[in-house]
Amino acid sequence: MDLTWNADEDQFRSEVRTWLAENVPAEPLPSGDTEVGFRLHQQWEKTLFDSRYSVVSWPEQYGGRGASLWQWLIFEEEYYRAGAPQRVSQNGIFLLAPILFEFGTEAQKQRYLLPMAEGIEQWGQGWSEPNAGSDLAGIKSHATKVDGGWRVNGQKTWTTRGAFCTHLFGLFRTDPDQERHRGLTYLMTPLDADGVTVRGVARLDGDEGFAEVFFEDAFVSDDDVLGGVDEGWAVAMATTSSERGLTLRSPGRFVAAVERLRGLAARYPEAVDARIADAITQAWIDAQAYQVSTLRTVTKMLDGESVGAESSLNKIFWSEMDVRIHEIALELLGARGELIDDSPDAVDAGGWMKGFQFALSGPIYAGTNEIQRNIVSERVLGLPRR
Amino acid sequence: MRFAFTEDQLLFTSAVADLLADKYPAERVRAAWDTPTEAPDDRSVWQQLADMGVVGLLAPESTGGMGLGALDLHGLLVESGRVAMTEPIVETAAVAVPVLAAAGHSALASVIAGEQTVAVGFADDPVVRVDTDLLLLEHGGTWYLAETAAVTATPQTSVDGSRRLASIEWTPTPGHALPGDIAAARDRAIVAQSAQLVGLARHLLDETVAYVQVREQFGKPVGAQQAIKHKLADVLLAVDYAGPMVARAAHSIDEGDPDASVHASMAKCSAADAAKLAVRHGLQSHGAIAYTVEYDLHMWMKRVWALAAQWGTSAEHRDRVRQHLGL
Q1: Domain boundary pick from B148, B178, B208
Q2: How far apart are CA A148 and CA A159, in angstroms?
Q3: For residue range A244-276, what is the model confidence (pLDDT) as tens digits?
Q4: pLDDT digits (tens, 9 = 90+) for B221-256
Q5: Are residues B46 and B112 in the same domain?
Q6: A23 touches chain B (CB under 8 A)
Q7: B232 → closest Cβ in A281, A285, A381
Q8: Does domain A7-118 correspond to CATH entry 1.20.1250.20?
């Protein structure tokens, strides 16, 4: 065991810290889940890209630095520590890109990775449908083979920032005679194509962060099939396990959130009774546990071991920790906690209530935590499915 | 950066696990319950552990030990917890041996050789184990080594019938004093106890998982019910996140990390809370069969209840962390 960073890693951290100190906007940007805020966040993505900080772990030819997983963790720690803006590109760079690297053709990588890294093209996910949420294999949207591509019909929903995205990736049924997870294909499509309609939906916090996407005889080229035809389930599972696992929620995010919570406690000491102090302490311990556990997971990944169903444990842990962190903050704020936006007496511009509402989506998205507990008990503990 | 055990650490752990799988069946724990007033006379397992170098692992090679660290001992302690070992491996190997070694005490050789065992009592411990040959007792910030037979002991009965406890009356004499760092020894005790709790929790989870797969109700295994699955997933979650916290604390002790005490406290509350959850959900998932002393599980449950509160409860350790955070 060696829990120290080497000289290169220390150097990298120091460069990242300096750059962030000089470049992170002094005033927080408006929410990236609104039209105005999204465009400002897109500019920030471009700023990151221009200094090659938007996708540090990617190869240099696609705008990255070829950074190691350890450097990526360091980057994330520094990023959240600096209070830098939310990553509106995350669905593309963290979820689609790993799939492109693993399953994509050379032409697909050339076509899509650079504009994604630059933030010019923004990707939404096309998984859930009105009647297929956690039960993803129940999707009905379908694609029929036509000359040179596929004719797509159906509806996707809960597409994050779909109203502002340029493209969508997701699963579509390509073999109508097959059921469940067989006969599905992973497709990529521009959202401005004929036959595609996007309707924004306000989320719990009121921002237009969701969208419904309707397909009516929309054409998708054969060039935009990712992985094999009818083999989309295996490709999609690779995405969801990175969504549940490391890439979406690095420990730096929660370490920084708990530090902000400590800062809140220091500003309002009269509101910190023994019970709240104990709860903050437990939250700090939880963030530490997540950080230490991540060091173990990354070591396993670098040793070539598969993480697999353990990513479900990660997802349960961080998503429920995130909810608790925000619950404690609201408890501490008391009656001030309900004040949001530009209310004169809102604390941190109502960010804790907004963060709380966002945190509540964690136990739901990427497969509810109930489904994750089923996965853990069946695939890790070996309990019977039925 | 690398968070993993070395090949040597894994091999040593697996050698001890093999020995215990062979020599430490539940009947052995039960036998310790059945002879509550006597010290165990069967020292064969302890002797074999001593022969393998486990007991003297933390003592320098020049004194007959292995010159290794808390992290090297970690996996062995987890295994000792898994089988609910009654022998004082935490007290003797993790706490007393380094104290005796640092003090250059003459008892060290016989302890490392497995001929004598040592229990440990900090001044604030209400009771101590008295099933050992020697007692390492803290008084006024100084260690004293006493023969167990020489102290006046009032036996106390534990919920865990395999534990021989007593409150003791004893007058420290300068001739028995040893130099030594009390705080460092306490941290080693806390982390070692945490490792055992992780092992106890893993056994409770494994036993419960095995049981709910064979126990059928309503025409299917009870382990197919989501209510049971989710409870056991929660136990795995707690144990899986506690384990690395305990290993990290052991590593911090070895490295002389200034935050080693805080890491030890985090390890203890994580491990104790995980073990208590494993008991709670283990019992509930078994149902009435585990609510009896005829079924073995109760011995692991009661060991958890006893050890979870040793050397600081979760609340006390969280409070140490709270003070560290300035809250």
Answers
A1: B178
A2: 27
A3: 555 657 899 999 999 999 999 999 999 999 999
A4: 999 999 999 999 999 999 999 999 999 999 999 999
A5: yes
A6: no
A7: A381
A8: no
Model confidence band, residue B41 (pLDDT cutoffs 50, 70, 90):
low
CA neighbor of A104 nearest in space, from A238, A250, A210: A238
Say how many CB pairs under 8 Å bridge A and B: 132
Nearest to A257 by CA among A345, A350, A351: A351
Best interface-test mutation with B: which of A318, A383, A385 has the largest number of B CBs within 10 A? Answer: A383
Tokens of A123: 């990707």
Enumerate the residues of chain A whose CB falls inside 8 A of the CB of residue B3: 1, 3, 292, 295-296, 298-299
* CATH architecture assigned to A245-380: Up-down Bundle (1.20)
Subunit contact A293:B220, Cβ cutoff 8 A? no
> Which amino acid is present at B262?
V
Portion 51-110 of B in contact with A at CB < 8 A: 71
Q: Are residues B201 and B304 in the same domain?
A: yes
Q: Distance of alpha carbon A37 from its chain centroid, rounded? A: 18
Give A366's pLDDT tier (boundaries 50, 70, 90).
confident
pLDDT at res. A305? 85
The mean per-residue pLDDT over the stretch A107-129 comes to 97
Check if the beta carbon of residue B306 is closer than 8 Å to that of residue B158.
yes
The structural domains of chain A, with segments of one domain joined by +, span 7-118, 123-232, 245-380
Asked casually if ipTM beats, i.e. exceeds, 0.85, the reply is yes
Domain A123-232 class in CATH: mainly beta
* Predicted pLDDT of residue A237: 81
| Beta partners for residue A185, in sequence order | A172
> Which of A1, A285, A317 minimises the CB distance to B2?
A1
